[in-house]
Write a structure and sequence with these properties.
- There is one protein chain.
- The chain is mostly helical.
- It has one domain.
- Strands 1-3-2 form a 3-stranded mixed sheet, with helices on both faces.
- Helix 1 packs across helix 6, helix 5 crosses helix 6 and helix 7 crosses helix 10.
- It is globular, with a radius of gyration of 26 Å.
- Bound molecules: zinc ion.
Length: about 280
Amino acid sequence: MHKLIAALVFGVTLMLSPLAWAFEFNQDLLSGAVQTLTTQLQDDKTADAEELAVGRQIAGNLLGAAALVKDQKLQKYVNQVGRWVANQSERPDLAWHFGVIDSGDINAFAAPGGYIFVTKGLYKLLKNEAELAGVLAHEVGHVVRKHHYKVIQQAKVVDFGSKLLAEKAGSDNQLVQQLIGSGAEIVARGLDKRAEYEADRMGVVLAARAGYDQYGLVEVLQQMGHYSGGDDAVKLLFKTHPHPDERLSKLDESLGDQLDDLHGQTLPGRLYKLKK
Ligand SMILES: [Zn+2]
């Protein structure tokens, strides 16, 4: 009887040993993978931190040129709508900041890392919350696709790379400082047309995902199209973006009837009314 038990135990041990070996092997594989993933995450964190540092400074420069409108409720409201839209994007975890800046110009800006501003002039054009969501979603698209940041990084390689190599010096902070100069200029100078069309497509899709009427951005573009290029309020916008009519026809081409079945909300009653 004891012999039988011993044989059984031996048999079970034999049966289990490949399992144990496989388990150990998998453990090794797993810890390797975890290590790779951790390094990857740390790299991503460093990259995100640099993007954020550059963006924060550019946002600071923008706010130096035009302050936020002094209306807490307005700013809170725009942040709520903006964050809800940004939550539908591939970068919901960024520390998104939205604001209305005190400028009569009709324009909106995005700085790397999730800093987004619309001018009071543009806000005044809006008729409902879906239009606000569409405008913010276009800017969210720029940040998600790192449109400005990529141009800044290219500038870094071209303009600063050789200089930095030659100096063999330069703390990260110095590098960030140098990036700001070109970054602020890039935000003001604008991107190439393809980036703008891509942000338009993303704007429509993100706003629709957030439950808004997908024509919000389209309606704002139509309004902008009514301005003549000579008008001071739209000068910078028209310089940095393709003409609204071109953007509308590109949107029409790429989206077609894809979103026709969606019935989002426009929410005119929820749009925060400016005090003056
Ligand atoms: Zn844009």
